[in-house]
Write a structure and sequence with these properties.
Length: 449
């Protein structure tokens, strides 16, 4: 392809001379220069439709004018004064909104942080403090972040454990209920929730339920490949928690703020979590995270158990307030649901045509397209790598995770014609892969998640 990418390649080369490799998952050399709505421009002036939204962090799209204006106004007033010691209006206003939009008709409190990772650390602290227990339960293949607490909850990459010493300990990982790849070998229609029995067995045999402080579950497993659990599973898990005095923690860093067609993913399951963990899209790209929990849970920790000099930064809070108001005002939750249905329909049509598409699943605009070698269902990492790379070459930002699952999470403001153009590029790339037109050299360059 004769598109100019010299500047991007040179930035990427320079980057590797200075930036530590521990913080990079390389797909292709896209150096961002500008972005607006659902379109990103690279340093060479090429434009891309964005099906990634900066890893589901930009539900309102790039540089939404409401968010930009709110931040500019706050910048003119003041940038920051540590909220560990002093108070500010944007922080209170943001907390008020978070209490309003989160499920659960009970008194709540909000704890702000900086990233999804530290919010998960906070959730562990709260669960331990409130219950007086130490153990946590989370899921195999989950990604919860890179701080010591959140990486201990995670179970997705040995590189998050190798060489860095023991994690938190006391975390028990169980399989996520993945009906496409049932860890117990069952078919969807002949399943009687044996997977939840695994936890019940654990409680009966080696994991005393009275030692467990909390269960951390993503309502849709994100980096595990957009896996939507059965409703009965989530309800039974919630019941098990209630029966045993264990806190149910809904980890919504990736699925929150309208991504799944509801404000929070857990609302699809009719369950009221004790703690909700938020990050990413909360402030349209500004670094801030939040925990919302029952008041009595929050009251179990005293200062300075969880505070940061920069948390509740008023510019970030203003961005978050504008984000929430925009999601409400522009009906983006419903838009996510409707556009998600549209995309699922189109992707399912593709599934009928191409054997390498094994599964299409998701809720709202959080969709995974699982690529396989053939009807055996073997994971096809090569296809995911080559297809996403070719999409980039053709003007679509698309990545993959879980090795072989294409990640479809565009901004919720994306226009239908942008979706259509993006899907057309995806289909062309799939056809080129099937014809063997994408060279193996791509596999050397693109590593992926
Ligand atoms: C579900 C989930 N939790 C937590 C995190 C960590 O968030 P952050 O990278 O903001 O620390 C991520 C990031 O990808 C995530 O997807």
């Amino acid at each position: 392809m004769d598109i100019k990418r010299d500047r991007c390649r040179s930035i990427c080369g320079e980057d590797s001379n200075f930036i530590a490799k521990a913080s990079r998952i390389h797909y292709y050399p896209l150096a961002v220069k500008r972005a607006k709505g659902s379109v990103v421009e690279d340093a060479d002036g090429n434009e891309y439709i964005d099906f990634l939204s900066s890893a589901a962090a930009l539900n309102t799209g790039h540089a939404h004018e409401n968010v930009v204006n709110a931040m500019k106004k706050q910048l003119d007033d003041f940038i920051h004064y540590t909220t560990a010691y002093m108070y500010n209006v944007p922080q209170v206003e943001l907390a008020r909104r978070l209490v309003q939009i989160t499920p659960g008709d009970f008194e709540k409190r909000v704890l702000l942080g900086l990233t999804g990772s530290d919010a998960n650390d906070g959730a562990i602290k709260l669960a331990r403090a409130y219950t007086g227990r130490r153990k946590m339960v989370s899921f195999i293949k989950a990604y919860h972040g890179s701080t010591f607490g959140s990486l201990s909850l995670s179970a997705i990459s040995l590189n998050m454990r190798r060489k860095i010493g023991p994690g938190l300990g006391d975390v028990h990982h169980i399989p996520y209920p993945d009906c496409y790849r049932c860890p117990l070998g069952h078919k969807k229609d002949e399943c009687s929730m044996e997977c939840i029995k695994q936890l019940e067995d654990a409680f009966e045999n080696f994991l005393p339920a009275e030692d467990v402080a909390g269960v951390v579950m993503e309502p849709i497993a994100g980096d595990a490949g957009i896996i939507v659990p059965p409703v009965q599973y989530v309800r039974r898990l919630h019941e098990l928690c209630k029966e045993n005095g264990i806190l149910f923690i809904s980890e919504e860093v990736q699925q929150g703020f309208g991504r799944s067609g509801r404000w929070f993913g857990i609302e699809h399951f009719g369950v009221e979590p004790d703690i909700i963990v938020m990050g990413k899209a909360i402030a349209s790209g500004m670094p801030i995270s939040a925990l919302v929990a029952r008041k009595e849970i929050m009251d179990s920790l005293d200062a300075p158990a969880h505070l940061f000099t920069m948390n509740g930064n008023p510019v970030c809070c203003s961005a978050a307030i504008a984000t929430i108001d925009t999601i409400s005002g522009e009906g983006l939750v419903e838009r996510s649901r409707l556009l998600g249905e549209y995309m699922m329909e189109k992707l399912n049509e593709m599934k009928e045509k191409y054997e390498i598409i094994g599964d299409v699943r998701g809720l709202g605009l959080s969709i995974g397209v699982e690529l396989v070698t053939d009807s055996s269902g073997e994971r096809n990492r090569e296809a995911a790598t080559k297809i996403s790379y070719r999409c980039w070459e053709k003007g679509l930002i698309l990545t993959f995770f879980a090795g072989n699952v294409l990640r479809v999470q565009p901004p919720l403001v994306i226009e239908k014609d942008e979706i259509d153009r993006g899907l057309a590029i995806m289909e062309e790339a799939i056809q080129e892969y099937v014809r063997g037109d994408i060279p193996d050299s791509v596999l050397e360059e693109s590593k992926g998640w």
